[in-house]
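Hey,
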Amino acid sequence: MAGPVLALDIGGTKLAAGVVSPDAEVVGEGTAATDPAARPPEVSEALFELAEQVLRRGRLQMRDLAAVGISFGGPVDYEAGTVVTCHHLAGWEGVPLRDIVSERTGLPAVMDNDANAAALGETAFGAARGCQHVLYVTVSTGIGGGLVLGGRLHRGLNCMAGEIGHTHLVPYGPRCTCGRLGCLESVAAGWAMVRDARAALDGGAVSALRSIPPEELSARHVAEMAQTDALAEQIMDRAGEYLGLGIARAVTLIGPQVVVIGGGISQAGDVLLGPLRRGFERYVMPEVARGLRLLPGELSPRWGLYGAAALALRELLPVD
């Protein structure tokens, strides 16, 4: 049986490192804030130091590990092991992070974007265990997705398959972070919820959200107040219905066994998943969705670590 693996997760606001066994036990872990002003060498060094701290606490050394998996918060070139771009941290374009990590640790390494990693993590350890065909959708500051088809990650042309957040949904809709108009992300992501809340408040809407300083307002505030505040509920309902529509379109094309909803905003529970399910049922063909399960992810808040570990275990190490 393969030994434990080192799991590394680089996000826009947080770094995480952990040691994960093949049976999904997190032997040790640690987190640190990501410095948004830091360049890739500084971020990498902070991540390596975090990994060393985790190993020291667990009385482990690199030679005790079998491989390294890396979950990165942005598009990557899987075959080359390089970062394509990052919308949250500067200077990462073209950085050969996989090889940097492998050289530093002395271990074989594999890297993928965070949504692909989480899709594989939920398939290996979480809500989609035992499934061969999985659509994973992450709803957070942005919206991402990953596909597992035939039990393996499907990356597609340019390693960009599964990017459901940038499928076109609303003709001439709001401008998205990718520069285009009307993407799913532009109407249902966390940043879009905040934009809509601020616009309503600027227009004079009566809401408890007004008690939060505008510069501090977040999608978490909208989700937390949605059960008691009409404006917050309206925003979550609209976002959830758009998500349901986007997922219905994806399901019609892909035909998965299960759709797993992850990401920070998914932790809002029924205030998001309720309208999402209603929207999905409204727009999907019943014949397409027969037998399909739509489930919340099970790996929060460790989906980054579990996803990185699943990459190392599934993509690098032989199965006994």
